[in-house]
Design brief:
The structure holds two protein chains of two kinds. By secondary structure, chain A is of the alpha/beta class. Chain A is built from ten helices and eleven strands. Chain A is 36% helix and 20% strand. Chain A is globular, with a radius of gyration of 18 Å. By secondary structure, chain B is α+β, with helices and mostly antiparallel strands. Chain B has five helices and six strands, in the order αβαβββαααββ. In chain B, the strands form two sheets. In chain B, strands 2-1-6 form a three-stranded mixed beta sheet, with helices on one face. In chain B, strands 4-3-5 form a three-stranded antiparallel beta sheet, with no helix packed on it. In chain B, helix 1 packs across helix 2. The longest helix of chain B is centred in the first third of the chain and has 19 residues. In chain B, 43% of the residues are buried. The chains are: A alpha/beta, B alpha+beta.
Chain lengths: 251, 134
C-alpha cells in the first residue's frame, strides 16, 4: 500500500468542469480604476442577452463590486443544486459576492482573495452559456492573475479612456497577457470617441460619454434606451468576428 | 448547503492525483473540514458516495473527515483567536460564511482592536490531507 501526502486543495481540479459548457469566456480588464470596466462588462452582458445569447456575468471586483447596482437586484439569491446556481437578473446569470456581504465592506487581503476566487469558481454552476463575462477589478493582482491561471480559455477585452495615464497601464496589461499567450480581443474606449487605442491593442470601438447612464442604473429597460447601450451593440460584431470569423453581420 | 459541489471537487482532485501517481485503487482519503465552513458531514459523505459509486478506482475508498479548528490572526495588532460562529454571527451571516469564508471580513472584527484586517490561518474549508492507494 502506498500512501501519498499531497496536501491538496481539491477545488482547483473542478473549475474546468464548472466552465465546460460555456462557449466563450471574456474577461473585461483595464488596469486603472474608474475607466468603466464594470459598466462596459454589464452593458456588454445586457447587449449580448438582447440578441438572444445565454449570458453569465461574474463580478470579480470583491473589494468594490458594482455590477449588482447596474443590473439591479431585488433580493434574489443563488439557488443551491449540487453547488450554487446564479439567479437570472435582467436576463443574465449573475454572480457577485454582494449576495453574501449585505452591503458591508469586504477588505480581503491577497491570499484570501485567491481563496475566495477559487471557491466561487469551484462551486458556481453556470450551466450552458454562450458567454461568460468576467468583470475584473483594476490592477494586475489576484483576480487578473487567477483568471489567467484557472481559466486558460479566457479572452481579454481591455477598457480604456483617452488619457495617457490610462493607456500606459493598459499597455502593460496587454504586454503581460501576450507574454502568457492569452488572447486579447481588443480595446474598447469608454467615455469618449477619439479612437486611439493603447499600444498593442486592436481597436474595437468607442462608447461615448452618456449622462443618462447614471439615471438608468438598476433598470434593464432604461439602460437599453441609452446611447451607451447602442454604442456597445455596435461593437458586438467586432467581438464576434475576432472569435469565429464572420459569425455575425457587421451592424 | 452545497456539500455536493465540495465533495465533487474532492473526487475530481483524488482522481487527478491517482492518474498522475498511477494508482489503480484508492483505499483511503483523509480530508480536513475547516470549521469555518460548517460543512454537514452527512451531506458531504452522501454526495461523495453517490458521485463515486460507479468508479471502481475510488468507490470503495474509506473517507475520513477530521475537523480543523478555526485560527484567526489580526494583521493590525497580532491578536490570535478562535471563535464559535454561533457566538458572533446571525443565521444569514453564518450561511454567507458557509459559502464564502472570506466574507467573514464583512461581519467580524478583531476582538482586541476592532480591525477587519485579519487572516484566516486555519479552518477555512476543505483540504485533502492524504490519499492512500496502490
Amino acid at each position: 500500500m502506498t500512501a501519498a501526502n499531497p496536501e491538496l486543495d481539491p477545488r482547483t481540479s473542478v473549475i474546468g468542469r464548472r466552465l465546460a459548457d460555456i462557449e466563450r469566456v471574456i474577461a473585461v480588464a483595464g488596469g486603472k480604476g474608474g475607466v468603466g470596466k464594470s459598466s462596459v462588462a454589464s452593458m456588454l452582458s445586457l447587449a449580448l442577452s438582447s440578441e438572444g445569447k445565454k449570458v453569465g456575468l461574474l463580478d470579480m471586483d470583491f473589494h468594490g463590486p458594482t455590477d449588482h447596482l447596474i443590473l439591479g437586484l431585488s433580493g434574489e439569491m443563488p439557488a443551491e443544486d449540487k453547488g450554487i446556481v446564479p439567479p437570472e437578473i435582467s436576463g443574465i446569470r449573475f454572480m457577485t459576492i454582494s449576495y453574501y456581504s449585505s452591503g458591508k465592506p469586504s477588505p480581503i487581503r491577497g491570499d484570501g482573495l485567491t481563496e475566495s476566487i477559487i471557491e466561487l469558481l469551484a462551486i458556481t454552476k453556470w450551466g450552458k452559456l454562450d458567454y461568460l463575462i468576467i468583470d475584473l477589478p483594476p490592477g494586475l493582482g489576484e483576480a487578473t492573475l487567477d483568471i489567467m491561471r484557472f481559466v486558460p480559455d479566457a479572452e481579454f477585452l481591455a477598457v480604456y479612456n483617452d488619457s495617457r495615464l490610462v493607456k500606459e497601464t493598459v499597455r502593460n496589461l496587454i504586454i503581460l497577457l501576450k507574454e502568457s499567450g492569452i488572447p486579447v480581443i481588443g480595446a474598447v474606449e469608454n467615455m469618449g470617441s477619439k479612437g486611439d487605442p493603447p499600444e498593442g491593442a486592436s481597436f474595437l470601438g468607442s462608447v461615448r460619454y452618456d449622462d443618462s447612464f447614471e439615471k438608468a442604473l438598476g433598470s434593464r429597460e432604461m439602460l437599453a434606451k441609452t446611447n451607451f447601450f447602442a454604442d456597445v451593440k455596435k461593437i458586438l460584431p467586432r467581438i464576434n468576428r475576432k472569435f469565429g470569423g464572420g459569425q455575425d453581420e457587421e451592424g | 448547503m452545497h456539500e455536493w459541489a465540495l465533495a465533487e471537487s474532492v473526487v475530481c482532485s483524488v482522481l487527478e492525483f491517482s492518474k498522475k501517481e498511477k494508482l489503480t485503487l484508492v483505499s483511503e482519503i483523509n480530508v480536513l473540514l475547516g470549521e469555518m465552513q460548517v460543512i454537514d458531514r452527512e451531506a458531504f459523505t452522501f454526495a461523495f458516495r453517490e458521485i463515486t459509486k460507479r468508479n471502481p478506482v475510488i468507490r470503495n475508498a474509506k473517507l475520513n473527515m477530521k475537523p480543523e479548528k478555526t485560527r484567526l490572526e489580526c494583521e493590525r495588532c497580532g491578536k490570535k483567536w478562535t471563535f464559535s460562529l454561533e457566538d458572533r454571527l446571525t443565521g444569514n451571516e453564518r450561511e454567507s460564511v458557509h459559502f464564502l469564508p472570506e466574507i467573514s471580513h464583512s461581519y467580524m472584527k478583531c476582538p482586541r482592536c476592532g480591525s477587519r484586517d485579519f487572516s484566516i490561518k486555519k479552518g477555512r474549508g476543505v483540504r485533502i490531507k492524504s490519499i492512500k492507494g496502490e
